[in-house]
């Protein structure tokens, strides 16, 4: 099956700083990438959808100026949490889908656990 | 009203028994339905998907879909301790390409 990696797997940062999370599709070209956030004991909430070479589409309630998404190539998307605060501490998961892929071909990365102190 | 609803559990079943997980959804236009398994601290992994009314079997797993009742379920036969995890139901709304997840049901398979 297709492999999606995320880096870092966990990060601790101080309040007010910015953190960048990378999502890579290792063996396929990901035309669409999705970014999710999951708080403890809650489900995955879609934050944004990004298509290669175009601006991300953010879900209602997600601040696009705070969560910067870049999908500059077919194998890499990045999520930057700017001016992070403790309430941004969460498990961030990306998923990727290829050009011919349907919903069942949405492959998830291993996630990045962000802790803001 | 939540778009995808699941009982949070925990659902406890003895090893070897059948575990039955249920999910209801609100969007009648939903077309595709998925079950993911998520171990603690890990990302979800796809177990089953179903598009048409009826049953779909894959090994020990059976997904059941009833669009009229807006209900989808997952049966796990011969439950094993390694099946202990949170099971997430996900639905795609009509022609939208995104998935909407339920809050998940935690399954505990006891020895």
Number of helices of chain A: 0
Kindly report the greatest chain-chain contact and the residue count on each side.
Answer: A-B, 20 and 20 residues
Main β sheet profile of chain A: 7 strands, mixed
**Total beta strand runs of chain A:** 11
* Percent range for β-strand residues of chain A: over 45%
Residue stretches of chain B low in confidence (pLDDT < 50, at least 5 long) are none
Question: What is the helix/strand order of chain B?
Answer: EEEEEEEEEEE
In whole angstroms, the N-to-C terminal distance of chain A is 37 Å
* Percent strand of chain B: over 45%
The structural class of chain A is mainly beta
* Strand count of chain B: 11
Number of helices of chain B: 0
Return the structural class of chain B: mainly beta
What does this 3D model show about the protein?
The complex is a heterodimer of chains A (117) and B (111). Chain A is an all-beta fold. In chain A, 0% of the residues lie in helices and 53% in strands. Chain A is built from no helices and 11 strands. Chain A has strands at 4-7, 10-13, 19-25, 30-38, 45-51, 57-58, 67-73, 76-81, 90-98, 107-108, 112-116. In chain A, strands 2, 4, 5, 6, 9, 10 and 11 form a 7-stranded mixed sheet that branches. Chain A has a 4-stranded antiparallel sheet with strand order 1-3-8-7, with no helix packed on it. In chain B, the strands form 2 sheets. In chain B, strands 2, 4, 5, 9, 10 and 11 form a 6-stranded mixed sheet that branches. The termini of chain B are far apart. The interface between A and B is medium-sized, with 20 and 20 residues.
Give a quick rundown of the structure.
The complex is a heterodimer of chains A (117) and B (111). With 117 residues, chain A is mainly β.
Secondary structure elements and their pairing?
The complex is a heterodimer of chains A (117) and B (111).
Chain A: E1 4-7, E2 10-13, E3 19-25, E4 30-38, E5 45-51, E6 57-58, E7 67-73, E8 76-81, E9 90-98, E10 107-108, E11 112-116
Parallel strand pairs in A: 2-11
Antiparallel strand pairs in A: 1-3, 3-8, 4-5, 4-9, 5-6, 7-8, 9-10, 9-11
Chain B: E1 4-5, E2 11-14, E3 19-25, E4 32-38, E5 45-50, E6 54-58, E7 61-66, E8 71-76, E9 85-92, E10 99-101, E11 105-110
Parallel strand pairs in B: 2-11
Antiparallel strand pairs in B: 1-3, 3-8, 4-5, 4-9, 6-7, 7-8, 9-10, 9-11
């Amino acid at each position: 099956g297709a492999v999606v990696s995320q880096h870092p797997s966990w990060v601790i940062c101080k309040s007010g700083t910015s953190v960048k999370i990378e999502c890579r599709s290792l063996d396929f070209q990901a035309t669409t990438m999705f970014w999710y956030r999951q708080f403890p004991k809650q489900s995955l909430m879609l934050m944004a959808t990004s298509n290669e070479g175009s601006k991300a589409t953010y879900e209602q309630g997600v601040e696009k100026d705070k969560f910067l998404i870049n999908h500059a190539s077919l194998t890499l998307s990045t999520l930057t949490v700017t001016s992070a605060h403790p309430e941004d501490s969460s498990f961030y998961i990306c998923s990727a889908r290829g050009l011919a892929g349907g919903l069942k071909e949405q492959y998830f990365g291993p996630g990045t656990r962000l802790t803001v102190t | 009203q939540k778009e995808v609803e699941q009982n949070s559990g925990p659902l406890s079943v003895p090893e070897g028994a059948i575990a039955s997980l249920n999910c209801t959804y609100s969007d009648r236009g939903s077309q595709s339905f998925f079950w993911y398994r998520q171990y603690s601290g890990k990302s979800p992994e796809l177990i089953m998907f179903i598009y048409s009314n009826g049953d779909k079997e894959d090994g020990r797993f059976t997904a059941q879909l009833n669009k009229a009742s807006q209900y989808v379920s997952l049966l796990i036969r011969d439950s094993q301790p390694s099946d202990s995890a949170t099971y997430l139901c996900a639905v795609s709304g009509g022609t939208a390409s995104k998935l909407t997840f339920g809050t998940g049901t935690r399954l505990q398979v006891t020895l």
